[in-house]
Design a protein that fits this description.
The chain is mainly beta. The protein has one domain: YVTN repeat-like/Quinoprotein amine dehydrogenase (Methylamine Dehydrogenase, Chain H), CATH 2.130.10. Helices cover 8% and strands 48% of the residues. It is built from one helix and 30 strands. The strands form seven sheets. It has a five-stranded mixed sheet, with no helix packed on it. Strands 13, 14, 15, 16 and 17 form a five-stranded antiparallel sheet that branches. The termini are far apart. Keywords: Carbohydrate metabolism, Glucose metabolism, Membrane, Transmembrane, Transmembrane helix. Belongs to the cycloisomerase 2 family. One of its GO terms (cellular component) is cytosol. One of its GO terms (molecular function) is 6-phosphogluconolactonase activity.
């Protein structure tokens, strides 16, 4: 690590050490008062034949699982009710699903830690929800665990967890997957036994479209790569065998997992899996630099088990951040100060099931759906647009080993 990075990290640790206990206690006290019980006002699962919502009132929900299946549900956006359709694709360990921004096409990873992973494109039948395979391309890495779609460049960006690499794949005009364009292998490790090597966990393009940020679980880094939208190409500025000079160095053993940009594009909200924290970072696009601003715990102070945070998302209006506490089966709601980018606690609510692995906010911004992996359920929460507060509607669909969710209108 260069001396400038050490100075930043030292200041960061000092600030975190002074405030950690106070923030944790404040967060717990505030959120404990905001617990929201489930209400049975909205019906649960409708019969498979009861697709009563009109097209304007419904969205297809595609759920990735760890059992080599993609399941389809239908969400009535006027009530939050779910219709269970069932498995619509098989043969892939689809631990992440993404959607084309304009076409009815779903993309799935094949998260295989042993063999090379892949990205598969499926056409959606809007009448029935059925998926038809279009084509498939190799991801150039093992354990492909995450996909993001950069719409301006028509590029899919894949994080290969097991091999510790990221790849870019061009998307054709018809939505089919084109050739893999670039792959970058990452290096690094951390003190946790799960951090023996680099493990890229997700990829996000910054608002300028010039950079791709990669939280690496194993290396305790957020790597920053140049991204050329014209050629779909990722490029590292690190010399062979050397660390990325622009990478944000997270505290050892935190395990960076996912991140989102705030609405202004000036702040990044980084979720760490192992320490279960949200680190607020200021983004300097002119110099491709991340600077720590604030750290908030996701776990409650009394929790003494193995921490695990899983997912983070920004509300459609950019005013709230939602975080998944996998270890304690909870969703945490945080409000955003638009001037400083800092976060304040709003609510802590049960996930509706066991081992929440992923969640997603629907395109209307009214509903948050949680994939509870261990209980095999997808649970529906209503979002209050004024306060950001979640209400468990009681609507639930049974989907074995549900881990990821995306929507098609």
């Amino acid at each position: 690590m260069q001396s400038s990075s050490k100075e930043v990290f030292s200041r960061y640790v000092h600030i975190a050490a002074l405030g950690a206990l106070a923030v944790s206690a404040w967060l717990y006290a505030t959120l404990s008062c905001a617990q929201t019980p489930a209400t049975p006002a909205v019906p649960g699962v409708l019969p498979t034949s009861a697709a009563s919502a009109t097209p304007a009132q419904s969205e297809w929900v595609y759920v990735g699982t760890q059992q080599a299946q993609i399941h389809a549900l239908r969400l009535d956006t006027s009530t939050g009710a779910l219709t269970t359709i069932g498995p619509v694709a098989e043969g892939l360990k689809a631990t992440w699903v993404a959607v084309h921004p304009e076409r009815p096409i779903v993309y799935s990873v094949d998260d295989d830690n042993v063999k090379e992973g892949s990205i598969t494109a499926f056409a959606v039948d809007r009448a029935t929800g059925a998926l038809t395979r279009i084509d498939q391309t190799a991801s150039a890495g093992n354990g492909t665990t995450n996909l993001s779609f950069d719409a301006p460049s028509m590029t899919l960006l894949a994080a290969n967890y097991a091999s510790g690499s990221v790849s870019s794949v061009a998307v054709n005009a018809d939505g089919s997957v084109g050739p893999r364009v670039s792959t970058i292998a990452e290096t690094g490790s951390g003190p946790n036994k799960r951090q023996a090597s680099a493990h890229a966990h997700s990829v996000v393009v910054d608002p300028s479209g010039r950079y791709a940020l990669v939280p690496d679980f194993g290396a305790d880094r957020v790597f920053i790569y140049d991204f050329d939208r014209a050629t779909h190409t990722l490029t590292s500025r690190a010399a062979p065998g050397q660390d990325d000079p622009r990478a944000f160095v997270a505290p050892p053993g935190t395990g960076p997992r996912h991140l989102v940009f705030g609405a202004s594009g000036q702040y990044v909200y980084l979720l760490t899996e192992l320490s279960a924290e949200v680190i607020v970072l200021r983004w300097d696009a002119a110099h491709a630099r991340l600077t720590p601003v604030q750290t908030l715990p996701v776990s409650t102070p009394a929790f003494n088990g193995v921490k695990s945070a899983a997912e983070i998302a920004l509300s459609r209006d950019g005013r709230f951040v939602y975080v998944e506490d996998r270890a304690e089966n909870a969703i945490v709601v945080l409000s955003v100060d638009p001037a400083s980018g800092t976060l304040s606690p709003v609510q802590r609510i049960g996930s509706g099931g066991d081992r929440p692995w992923g969640f997603a906010i629907d395109p209307s911004g009214q509903w948050l759906l949680v994939a509870n992996q261990r209980s095999g359920s997808v649970n529906v929460f209503r979002i209050d647009p004024a306060s950001g507060v979640l209400t468990d509607t009681g609507a639930v669909a049974q989907v074995p080993t549900a881990v990821a969710i995306t929507f098609v209108r």
